[in-house]
Structures are given as C-alpha cells and as structure tokens.
C-alpha cells in the first residue's frame, strides 16, 4: 500500500509501535484503491485535527482512522494507564478507542465541509502492538488489532475486518469513488519534506508543507515524463528539484541531478546524502552513464546548444523520449552565468508539461517588492511577512562602501545576529575586486572570502559573488559594489544578490546607481 510519507522519508521515529505498523502497511498489496497517510511530520500546533490521527487509510468508499498504542495499557476505575518501553507511565481519562472515535468524527465533519458531495463511510481501528486487550463493552473485536496482527497478512485481515464492520454499520452502501478526491484534499497536509536548511544541517525536525502549486508539481512528476518548472527566485525550485530526485530514486530509477554551479551542486549532494541520486556539477558529467531520470536545477544556465547536446546524451531516450525535469528561472538570472538561448528553451518546453510557481516562499514581502521595483523581475507573490525595510546607502567610492558596510555589520552584531548568518555579495566579477576587502571586518578576519557560500565558516561573515551564490540563500544579505542598475548584465547580478536574503537586505549603491533608482521609481526603502 502506498504510504505517505514513504519509509525513506520517515527519519527518526520516537514510537517503535508506529514504525512497526508503518513497515507492515508499506508491504501490503491491496486489491482496491488504498493509500495510507501517516502524521509523523505534522506540527501538532498547526494541524491539530490531523496530527491527533496516527494513520489514516483512504479507500474508495471508506476512511479508516488508525490509533496505535505501543507499550502496556491498563484501565482501572475508568482511567487508562499507558506505560512506554522506558517504563514511564501516564494516566488519562480518555482511552485509545475514545481518542480514535473523537478524531474520526472531527475528520468526518471537516471533510464534509470541504467535499460537500462526499459519500463514504468513516471508521477507526485501534492497534496495540505489544499487548492483547480482552473483550470489553467499550469496543467490538473488529475495531481492535493486537500483537497477533503484527504481520503483513495479520494486519491486512484486521484492516479488512474493520473496513467491513464500519461499512455494515451504514444504513446504505456508500457510493464511494472518492479515493482521488479525498487524497487531493488530505495528501498535501501529510506529505511533508525536510527543508533544505534542515537537510544540510542533518536535522530531522524541520519540515515544509508545499504551497499548492509546488505540491501540484510533485504530483505532475509522478504522471509525466518531461517537466519544465518555471519560477522566480525564492519559489522553491531547488527544494522541488531535490525532492523529485529523491522520490524517483526511491522508486528504483537511476537519477542524475546537475547544475552549472559547483557550490550549488555541493549543497544538492549534501541534501541528498544517503540516497542513490548522483549529484554532479555540469563540468563533471562527461563520463557519466545515461540515467533513467535527468534533473537540472538552475537550468537557465545551461540553455545553449552545446549544453543541450551534452545533456541529451545523459538520459535514456534523450530529450525527445526520455524522462527529465528542468527547474528554470527565465527572469534576470538567465544573464548571470552561462547562456540562455530562448529557441532551445522553447523547443524543450514544447515537448514537456510546463508548471509555473506563482509564489515566493523565501523572501519577505518587502524584499519581493523592492526587487520587482528595481529589476522589473516578477518573482511571485510573497508568502512571508513584511520583514524589516530594505536599506540603501549611497557609497561615493570604495572607501565609503567599506566604512558603511562596517557600520551595518556592527549594527547587526549589536542586534545579536549570528555572523554566520550574514553574507556579503559583490556584484563585481571577482571577490578580489570588491570594496568589501577594504573593510575593517575583512582586515580583522571576521569577513572571509569564500567561493562556496554554503561552506561552513565557523560563525564568520562570508564574502562571495552573485554568480557563486546563485541558487543559495542566507538570512541576512549585504550587497556591495552596485554601480549600475540599467545595464542588463549588472541588473541581473543585482536581482540574484537581492533575492538571496530571507530576512534583511542592505545595499550599497554608487551615486550613478542611486540616481538611476531615484529617477526610475520610488522605492520607499530606508536610506
């Protein structure tokens, strides 16, 4: 039976009983449409109605709530005592059957509101993997599965008995045919994935619920061989590239994930550690054997005839018949690194399913607005809050840039911002050309030049280029050496630099750039 999230996504599970049930369900081969949703990654405070359900099995004609209670259970004078595997006990007036019943009713009421035409039955099953419970007036035997059900065939029989029991309780047989509709409503709540930040840090407790259009792309990837995903900076393309790669690999496919940037390739490789996905920068793919699924992140950097031909040879069936996913920002990023040939892009898009991501999930509304005002790029509708105002400083020369940058870094330090969360981005060609190297922070070693912005720098501020930081992000970004915002190439670099910031953004402008912005629009930014 399909388990969402899959076993490969579960990570560390506190409840051994729940993990045993998940393993058994994943091995089942139901004879009817059926999907099991597991609430392991649901934040308790965000989806209380859902998170109180351990497992939810969605059939075509019935929805079963599964309550799992591991350890030892006892009931005395109407109170239930639960003892876990560590010997710790807790006492509750509400037992597992009442918990399951309450969750079932809440779920039923919520679904009937969201799907008014829904005609299915609802029921529950309590699973006690470690203890048999005797007969009792509180429950019928069909709604209880004990240790003897802890095999694939045993749990299949228990689920079928519960399913028949609850269907027989209906005054008439439900029409059903609701498996797909139910999943369209329920699945996005359960199908969480680790955020890029938590993956890179090897954490297990930070999960992301995709926006509707992002989640739609994951479903499209299950049904379509060729996909072009379009979205501005911050729309979640890289997270989606990682997740589609991981899911394809779990299905047994040989998967290659590539991009032009070596720094980004390193981040992708780290994020997919433990999977069978091959992650390589484009410059290192020449000896790679053709794969079943090719995934290209920041594909606008590789949208030229030569790269097109090289990538064609890397996927079984080539561009025409192969399975591939391109994640692309055709905004100003297309002019920063590599070559963007519109005719190549149009040819690929014509053979694929195109999905556009309308939301910006990285930047604050303030940063989104300022980026759009200055660069003209459409980076979507911000889903984050307003955030602090973008700060612009006029810097007559490199000395002034260094001095004003030092003042801002001091301000961030006084605000107790971790300096490891700060990145200084130069829009000049190389780090060595940046005015930031004249700063006190650089001379004292607090500001380190890095070619890989994702590298660990032990709490130091990082100095990098717009080209190197493409595809990556930072909590606080300082952009320096902005000399012109009308030249397309310069504006493209500024676009990349501005959209890296998740929380705060500071920009040092030459008098020319300052005048261009002042004459072109009213930014409303803090100066």
Write the layout of secondary structure elements.
Layout: E1 2-4, H1 16-27, E2 34-38, H2 48-51, E3 55-59, E4 62-68, E5 72-76, E6 79-83, E7 89-92, H3 96-114, E8 121-127, E9 144-145, H4 152-168, H5 179-190, E10 193-194, H6 196-200, E11 207-208, H7 212-223, E12 226-231, H8 237-250, E13 255-259, H9 262-271, E14 278-281, E15 293-296, E16 302-303, H10 305-312, H11 318-321, E17 323-328, E18 339-340, H12 342-350, E19 353-357, E20 359-360, H13 365-375, E21 381-382, E22 391-394, H14 398-414, E23 422-426, H15 440-443, E24 447-449, E25 461-465, E26 474-482, H16 488-498, E27 501-509, H17 511-520
Parallel strand pairs: 1-2, 4-8, 8-9, 12-17, 12-19, 13-14, 13-15, 15-17, 16-18, 20-21, 22-27, 23-25, 23-26, 24-25, 26-27
Antiparallel strand pairs: 2-3, 3-4, 5-6, 6-7, 10-11
Helix pairs in contact: 7-8, 13-16
Percent range for helical residues? 25-40%
Computed CA radius of gyration, to the nearest angstrom:
27 Å
Number of DSSP helical runs: 17
Distance between the termini: 58 Å
Q: Which structural class best describes the helix and strand composition?
A: alpha/beta
Quaternary organisation of the protein chains: single chain
Give the low-pLDDT segments.
44-48, 200-205
Q: Give the integer mean of the pLDDT values.
A: 83
